[in-house]
Each structure stands twice: as structure tokens, then as C-alpha cells.
Design brief:
It is a single chain. The protein is of the alpha/beta class. It contains 17 helices and 23 strands. The chain is globular. Helix 4 packs across helix 5 and helix 5 packs across helix 15. The longest helix has 15 residues. It folds into three domains: about 260 residues, FAD/NAD(P)-binding domain, CATH 3.50.50.60; about 90 residues, no CATH class; about 140 residues, 3-Layer(bba) Sandwich (FAD/NAD(P)-binding domain). InterPro entries: FAD/NAD-bd_sf, OSGIN1/2.
């Protein structure tokens, strides 16, 4: 019996083998936007509705393509470079020199001048639907809801659903169903400008996006892709779905022609080293909670935003012991937080800076008993019950502190362990599959198709902001569609007789 393709239902058929044209692994923002494109939603440069793009050089280059899809203008990395090679000189536009030029290109077309015209940026793209370009595909994500990491419960890292996102809502918005539309639908009024939504609001938006944008039939959550191998006709993907109270366990294989990796670089929290094991022992924590008579300090290790979120989320009178790296040549990312735009993060950075300025003992910005900062210190011993730690300071002093609990916040990393060893090697990952922003950056700069018929999008390209995910997605979608092109005379004949191969997406007979 031939493998069956996916149906329009979000319940996967019970057969063991299925097929589709493209498998997207990951269900975060980049995967959702790519699915929107593969549904046949086509972007075209629009210089009429809101006038030409404010970058005259870019306007001139894009105008050469007339009403042709934007995919034609970025059909190769060389073509993309031709459109963006002047960006470094267009200082009046404020183009990022850190993100991939292709990602900057789509960002400035979706929201020109967004950094200086929050709420006033007008898109220079128009969208049309073309069923002939629709590609059979599925989006497979281990997160419980669409949105990837955004849908994860922040309590596991000691933070809160009520922590505000770093980005403004416009910067988290996806074409097809904007954050502004979602806000109006939820609250019945216009969204204010300069709105930093809470993590809960962002998760709610991405969770609502698939149905609102018309892509929910292809988006699957709580499923785990693994043992992805290259085959003679494309790729095989083993998929596992955990059982729930309403759904049984399910395992199956998907065969596809194209593979897109959208799992990001932030899926796994870096665990504490072995010295902290007594602090992680549930038996110690349970016993101590029973004997606890007063509030003791919370130990926070880390110098980035997650560590700051833990401190911000702590009760007002909670004592904090904060161990962090302090390097003036590679400062904490908190340094870039303006005191007016991000007052909570600027406050934490001031505490860290004051602690680093004191070369002999910890400093306190508020009260001596509330916050102790230890720059470039390390924990050298932990008592068996996990309550007492010994700290070696940067000055060589050894101090003892009694603590309550630990929040170890030194970063996250992604993983490509779901790929076979051979495919990981072809992609450019030689170890057990751990990836960071730098792992695939050089390959992504050369081509987002990192090996034949395999693309990376989202933060796997090295650009972690949602707004810089669009370029890679548009490039991958254009290349996948180009691989399915059918001459117009053949297309007309096929439409009159049967669903085209693109519609079924079946690549394995």
C-alpha cells in the first residue's frame, strides 16, 4: 500500500508511513511564517500603496522585477547580495550590520524604518494567494503549542508569564495575522504604540496564529522528530507523539523531498555543573522546606536576561546572591538596555556594575542585605544538604553563604541530535548535535541551503530576533517552490484533470 499524504485534519492518520513534499522541524515563529508562505501566500514589492521604499537604491533594484514575486528577486544568495550590497553605505536607513543581509532585506520590506517609526512603519509588500504555488508540507514541533519556546512555561527557569518581552509587539508580528490584529480581536481596541507584550501575551498570539492565518491544518504540536535520514528520494523522518489523556501514543514515518530545520538555538537550558548537585537534590529541598523558619538568599548564576528576569521576578524582600561574569570587552547584553525603554534591566545592570566597581567586597545598590553581587566569582564547595556554599571571589577571598535555592542561568543551546550522524555532518555539525548562534553562521552566510535540499531558518542562521527570520523563510520557500515549477501549458492541463503532484506532496510511491 502506498504511503498516504496528510489530510486537512490536524489529527495525523494512523498509518505507519506518510509522505509530503516538505517537512519543517520546529513550530516557532520562523516555522509558522514559512508555512504561511508554502500555503501559496506570495509577497510582491509594492511601491504604490504607501509610496516607494524610503531607500531609493533598493526601490530602483526591486522595481526591475515589476509585479513578479519577491522570490524571483532573491532566487539565489548572489541575487540577494546584489539587492543588499549598498546597505552598509545607507547609514540614513539604520540597517543592521549584525544580521544576515537577506534577513535585513525582508525586515525592511515588512516594516521599513521600524526602529525609528514604531507603529508608523508601512509595509512595502503586498500579498496574494496562488494555489498553484502551494506546497504540501507539515510543521512538526515538540512544544505543546505553536510558538516554540515562547509557549514553554517560564516557571521552569524561575521567571514569570508576566515578564515583558524585550521586543515591541510589532517586532514579534508575523505577516498574515499581525500582533495588532490579534490585540484588537482580544481587547476590542487598538494596540498602543511602543507596546512590550508580556510573555503570556506573546504565547497567546503565536498560539492563535495558525488558525487565524489559515495554516492550522499543517501545524502539529507535541510531536518529536528524530532519526532523520537522507534517502534515495529525499528524507525519512521518524515521528513520535507522547500519549495524553485524550490521545494515544503514536509513532510513524514521514517521507519528504525537502527538509527545513527551524528548531532554533535556545531549546535546551545549559545544566549546572556537578558541584551544584546537592542544590538540585529533591530530598534536600523537601526536608529544608519543612524546617525553614526564615527567608534565605536566592542564588542566581548568570549575567544575561534570564538571570535578570529571575531577579526581577523575585519577591520585593527576597535576598539575592548574584554570581556573574564581568568582562568590559564582552559586556553583559544588559548593558545595551536603555534606562527609559528597559528600566528593569538597566537597574539590574547598575547593580552588577556597582558590584564590579568594588574590588574588595560585594556591593549593594539597595540595602546591604538585599543584593550581593560577585563578579567573576565561582562556587568551590557546596555542603551535602545543599544549604551552605563557599564562594571564591575575583580577589581571592573565600566566603561562606547560606542559601535557599539555585537558579542557574548561563544560557541555552539548540540541538540537531534528531538528525542522523551522517546528515549532521553534511549540515556542518560534527559533535553530538549541540548548536549555538555561531555554529552554522558561516554556512548560512554562504547559503541557507546548507546541504542539498536542507535549509536552516530562524535563529539557526545566527539571527535570534523574530524580525530577522523572514528573509531565510522567504528564500527557502522560493527555492522549494522553484523545485516544483511546472510550465503553464502543463499546469493548465493538470488542473483540468487531477490534483497536481504539488498538491498531494507525495514523493514516495
Amino acid at each position: 500500500m502506498a504511503p498516504r499524504r496528510f489530510t486537512s485534519s490536524n489529527h495525523i492518520p494512523p498509518e505507519d508511513v506518510k509522505c509530503t513534499d516538505t517537512v519543517i522541524i520546529g513550530n516557532g515563529p520562523s516555522a509558522l511564517f514559512l508555512s504561511y508562505l508554502l500555503h501559496g501566500n506570495i509577497p510582491t514589492y509594492d511601491s504604490v500603496t504607501h509610496g516607494p521604499h524610503p531607500d531609493p537604491a533598493l526601490h530602483t533594484k526591486l522595481s526591475r522585477y515589476g509585479n513578479r514575486p519577491l522570490f524571483d528577486a532573491i532566487e539565489s544568495m548572489r541575487a540577494s547580495e546584489a539587492l543588499t550590497e549598498h546597505f552598509h553605505a545607507a547609514t540614513y536607513m539604520g540597517y543592521s550590520n549584525q544580521a544576515l543581509p537577506l534577513n535585513v532585506l525582508l525586515d525592511t520590506l515588512v516594516q521599513p524604518g521600524a526602529d525609528t517609526e514604531i507603529g508608523g512603519a508601512k509595509s512595502r509588500l503586498k500579498w496574494s494567494s496562488d494555489e498553484r504555488r502551494r506546497i504540501g508540507h507539515v510543521v512538526l514541533g515538540s512544544a505543546k503549542e505553536a510558538g516554540g519556546q515562547w509557549s514553554e512555561d517560564p516557571a521552569s527557569t524561575g521567571t514569570s508569564w508576566d515578564i515583558e518581552a524585550l521586543s515591541y509587539a510589532e517586532m514579534l508580528s508575523l505577516p498574515g495575522y499581525s500582533f495588532r490584529e490579534h490585540y484588537r480581536r482580544k481587547h476590542g481596541k487598538a494596540m498602543p504604540h511602543l507596546n512590550r507584550p508580556t510573555r503570556r501575551e506573546v504565547a497567546d498570539y503565536y498560539g492563535a496564529y495558525p488558525r487565524a492565518a489559515g495554516i492550522s491544518s499543517e501545524v502539529f504540536s507535541s510531536v518529536y522528530a528524530h532519526r532523520v535520514n537522507r534517502t534515495q528520494s529525499g528524507f525519512s523522518v521518524k515521528v513520535y507523539r507522547k500519549p495524553t489523556s485524550s490521545r494515544p501514543q503514536c509513532e510513524y514515518t514521514i517521507h519528504c523531498k525537502h527538509l527545513v530545520l527551524a528548531t532554533g538555538i535556545l531549546t535546551n537550558v545549559i545544566p549546572p555543573p556537578p558541584i551544584f548537585l546537592p542544590l538540585l537534590n529533591p530530598a534536600n529541598n523537601t526536608l529544608y522546606q519543612q524546617q525553614r523558619v526564615k527567608t534565605l538568599p536566592l542564588l542566581v548564576v548568570g549575567s544575561g536576561f534570564t538571570a535578570a528576569d529571575v531577579i526581577i521576578n523575585a519577591p520585593p524582600n527576597q535576598k539575592i546572591i548574584h554570581i556573574f561574569k564581568w568582562n568590559t570587552t564582552r559586556p553583559s547584553p544588559l548593558k545595551g538596555c536603555h534606562s527609559q525603554a528597559y528600566p528593569e534591566y538597566a537597574s539590574i545592570y547598575r547593580r552588577m556594575k556597582q558590584s564590579a566597581a568594588d574590588s574588595t567586597s560585594p556591593a549593594s545598590l539597595t540595602t546591604p542585605s538585599n543584593y550581593e553581587g560577585f563578579p567573576n566569582a565561582q562556587v568551590i564547595a557546596v555542603s551535602g544538604d545543599g544549604r551552605v556554599i563557599r564562594i571564591l571571589t575575583a580577589d581571592g577571598d573565600i566566603l561562606e553563604r547560606t542559601i535557599d535555592t539555585l537558579n542557574y542561568c548561563v544560557g541555552r543551546r539548540g540541538s540537531l541530535e534528531y538528525l542522523s550522524a551522517e546528515l549532521r555532518k553534511a549540515v556542518g555539525v560534527l559533535d553530538a548535535g549541540w548548536v549555538s548562534a555561531d555554529t552554522l553562521r558561516r554556512r548560512a552566510e554562504a547559503d541557507l541551503e546548507v546541504t542539498k535540499n536542507v535549509w536552516v531558518v530562524g535563529s539557526l542562521t545566527g539571527d535570534s530576533l523574530v524580525r530577522y527570520a523572514f528573509g531565510g523563510c522567504a528564500y527557502a520557500a522560493g527555492r522549494i517552490m522553484a523545485d516544483q515549477e511546472i510550465p503553464e501549458d502543463e499546469l493548465t492541463m493538470q488542473e483540468a484533470t487531477t490534483t497536481s503532484r504539488r498538491g498531494s506532496g507525495c514523493v514516495v510511491s
